[in-house]
Design goal:
The complex is a heterodimer. By secondary structure, chain A is an all-alpha fold. Helices cover 53% and strands 0% of the residues of chain A. Chain A is built from 6 helices and no strands. In chain A, helix 2 packs across helix 3. The longest helix of chain A has 55 residues. Chain A is elongated, with a radius of gyration of 42 Å. Chain A starts with a helix and ends in a 47-residue tail after the last helix. Chain B is mainly alpha-helical. The chains are: A mainly alpha, B mainly alpha. At the A-B interface, helix 1, helix 2 and helix 3 of A face helix 1 and helix 2 of B.
Chain lengths: 208, 93
């Protein structure tokens, strides 16, 4: 009787411990399975991130090189425009082509932002600008077939100025061969000769 | 004997539920991470695929170099052909 009374709580305790152990096994095994899935997923993540790092590694240098090239191009074009048109007209041209852009100014000419851009509404040639400065009362403008005010007509612009010149190029026939191509892609490359403009090395032979 | 029974009751009523509660919490958290990791892996894979076009930047760089070189040649020709601006024209050249 006493033995039975002693054994009963022991059996209950053993059963409780077994239940606890079973719970531990079930949940820990399930957790291990979940952690294995996480590990496999992280392997995929690491693979993807590794590819991203590998593919994006040269991007920085390439973009820097592209930016340097573009910076050089901007410097070249800005410098050429200012050299050929002057700072004021350059700002006016930029304002004419891209309204509002003159407020930003040229990158290499900080003073250009303070210049009030002249009103130049069309891309112009130097000859057109010269004629425009002569004004509508100038003889060359008075001889214009359109009444002497073409150069003041902002809608006419440089195309109207062509009518001042006796040229068949823009009338008839409609299309003639264009001017020779210049630049590195020109079909004919001309090398600059050093002897042009220099004193003659020897006089031409006289006729006997 | 009474204490033994009390210990059994505590084991079954307190300790076992607490152990199960804690283990279930760990399992729930681990199961919650699995889909998130899967989504991250998918995003990383798509990000990697998005960068497949990155080598084309080398072509872009070469083309930019050629373009700028052409612009430089053209600008050099213009520099020879077109007169510089004079001070009367408002230029600073």
């Amino acid at each position: 009787m006493i033995a039975t009374a002693v054994v009963a709580p022991a059996v209950v305790m053993i059963a409780a411990v077994v239940l606890i152990v079973l719970a531990l096994v079930y949940y820990l095994v399930a957790t291990i399975v979940a952690l294995r899935r996480i590990s496999a997923g992280l392997d995929d993540v690491i693979t993807g991130v590794g590819e991203i790092i590998e593919k994006s590694a040269p991007v920085n240098d390439v973009v820097i090189a592209i930016n340097e090239q573009l910076d050089a191009g901007v410097d070249l074009l800005e410098g050429l425009l200012v050299k050929k048109a002057g700072l004021g007209d350059a700002v006016g041209l930029i304002e004419g082509i891209y309204p509002g852009a003159a407020a930003t100014g040229l990158r290499n000419f900080p003073d250009s932002a303070e210049i009030e851009p002249p009103r130049i509404g069309e891309v112009y040639t130097k000859g057109t600008l010269t004629l425009a400065r002569l004004g509508r009362e100038a003889p060359v403008a008075a001889a214009s077939p359109s009444g002497g005010e073409v150069l003041r007509n902002i809608e006419g612009g440089s195309l109207a100025a062509r009518s001042l010149y006796p040229s068949v190029r823009h009338t008839s026939p409609e299309r003639l061969p264009r001017s020779p191509v210049i630049g590195s892609g020109a079909p004919v490359q001309y090398e600059q000769r050093d002897d042009i403009g220099a004193p003659r090395k020897r006089l031409p032979a006289r006729r006997p | 004997m009474t204490l033994w029974w009390i210990g059994d009751i505590v084991l079954l009523v307190v300790i076992l539920p607490v152990v199960v509660y804690l283990l279930r919490g760990v399992l729930t958290a681990a199961d919650g991470i699995v889909p998130t990791v899967g989504e991250i892996a998918a995003v990383a894979k798509r990000g990697s695929q998005d960068l497949d076009a990155a080598p084309l930047l080398l072509t872009t760089r070469d083309q930019v170099e050629q373009t700028v070189a052409g612009v430089a040649d053209y600008g050099g020709s213009l520099d020879v052909i077109v007169d510089d601006a004079t001070d009367e024209e408002g230029g600073s050249a």
